[in-house]
Amino acid sequence: MNSNPDELKLHVDSDWKAQAEAEREKLRKIDVQRETAKEDDSADKLPPADFRSIVGLLATQALGGLGAYGDPDTRRVVVDLPAAQFAIDLLGVLAEKTKGNLAEEESKELIAILTELRSRFVHFAQMMAAQAAQGNPAAVSAAMGSSHASSKAESNKPKIILPS
User: Fold this and answer.
1) Cβ(156)–Cβ(138) under 8 Å?
2) For residue 135, is it left (φ>0), alpha (ψ between -120 and 50) or beta?
3) Is residue 25 included in any domain, yes or no?
4) Is pLDDT of 102 > 90?
5) pTM flag (> 0.70)
6) I need a surface site. Which of 79, 88, 122, 124 has the fewest CB within 10 A?
7) Is residue 131's pLDDT more than 60?
8) How many domains does the chain have?
9) Helix then strand then coil, % of the chain, to nearest 5
10) Which residue segment(s) compose the domain that 91 sits in?
11) Residue 78 — φ and ψ, nearest 5°?
12) Which residues pair with 76 in a beta bridge?
């Protein structure tokens, strides 16, 4: 090793403080971006609060009342025709009260959804009435929520429960 003190010189970069501060600022910006991204992610979990969301919410409730969403564990479908009718009627009120105030696309979507839901409701109500009128024991037991089945294969079939 060289022991001559005159030969040892410490080289200090005069810009090191500025570089360190610039690096800290970059890290602060990254932290802010991460926090903003977390806030954005939580906001993405819910749909936007707009007209389409209102229509979608009511349409989903109507479909649920028509038995569209069954319980996968019990393999039963709950049909609630009055609840479906109420949700469809609410969509009808919404269509009537907003007539002339919607964008053309929104109006067309609302009318198409109402037409489809009303058609499904009528079809489903007629089907349930026909099954009840025929006195079909399987349909009647399913409609009454009875859990007895005549065979193992029949017990695996979805059952329809009508709330009383």
Assistant:
1) no
2) left
3) no
4) yes
5) no
6) 122
7) yes
8) 1
9) 65, 5, 35
10) 51-161
11) -95, 120
12) 71, 159
